[in-house]
What does this fold into?
Amino acid sequence: MGLKAYKGTIVHTPKLGAYEILEDGYIVVENDKVVGTYETLPGEYKNVAVKDYTGKMIIPGFVDLHFHAPQFSNRGLGLDKELLPWLETYTFPEEAKYKNLDYARAAYGKVVHELWRQGTTRAVLFGTIHRKATKALMEMLDDAGLGAMVGKVNMDRNSPPTYCEETKDSIEETKKFIEQTKDKYKLVKPIITPRFVPTCTPELMKALGKMAVEYGVPVQSHLDENRGEIGWVESLHPESDNYSTVYEEHGLFGKDVPTVMAHCIWNKPEEIKLMSERKMWVAHCPHSNTNLSSGIAPIRTYLENGVKVGLASDISGGHDVSIPRTIAAAAQSAKLRWVYLNDKEEILSTPEWLYLATKGGGEFFGKVGSFEPGYDFDALIIDDSSIADVNPRTVQERIERYIYVGDDRNIEARYVAGKFVPEPKF
Ligand code: GUN
Ligand code: FE
It folds into this structure.
């Protein structure tokens, strides 16, 4: 690919809390990585081809840290229930269908297309317990040119008979899954995925924790989401101090490999402290947390305690794949928490939310989510002319309006690791 330059109004958030803006500036990219951002093109690059997006905004691609790909067909269904009945009634029966590879391919095609459409350039995905269907999803993501970590889900207890594994099979299939996928694609990688404590026996969790270290593969799961779920974990594990220590005691709490825990609404101070000492990310899922009556996560507290945070749709607990819509939902619920709980949990500014939606989650993938030198060039070209009004607007106003009222029609082009990503054929 060599050297390329992109001209446009660059907006990104290298640091939490402030936009960095270059009006009609240049980003120079070498192969997949950003070389630098410049007000004028430096002489040494004068012969480099410039893709001209003058007047449009160039922003980092969005990162979704938690998304159940097989639940995409269920978006909007059963959201008048709480987590545990919703899982039983809607979620497990839908996921069980992915035993059928044809069904899986048809349904996953729609997921890949929607990620592309909404400008989500990287996603951390749950598949199902089925190795083959999950591999098919990875192949489709690679084919589309999107970046992802994808997990074959593990469940060997408290699950319906049609959607449950034997412990031994769960371990063996996961090993096979990792070996078959870890070096297969550049931007699509496996992630170890115990669904959550209630559906994984201690023996399974122990084996998965060991496997994560042995293969150097990251981990994802759910933590402290819903009061009913937390009570269940306490009754299953009376020997543990809290939900986090159950994972910790089974080698699944970010000691050796990066680990992302979805929700993290009800974490106790000692759980937050342990997270801050580990390679741990919180996947903040505001739509889902409201839909399933789970609660409002204390994001300011995580940031003040040095815990890393990214944003997530949690399809289909969350109903909307759009990360900009997720930013708006996160901001709204943080404001309600502040008003109603008055617990000194300060709200976040819009650039802080944009940081979480790009670099905050992006760093789970490495150098992703910003246009600093050495970062992967993951970008969206935003043409916001259709949402302009009669007033001249600053770039800051334009990005904020795009986040709140823009949509996929404002995304003119997508790039992942330096490559233009065309509309997927699925
Ligand atoms: N906890 C365990 N499984 C799930 C799931 O599919 N969605 C959500 N929101 N929480 C879970
Ligand atoms: Fe989830």
Notes: The mean pLDDT is 98.
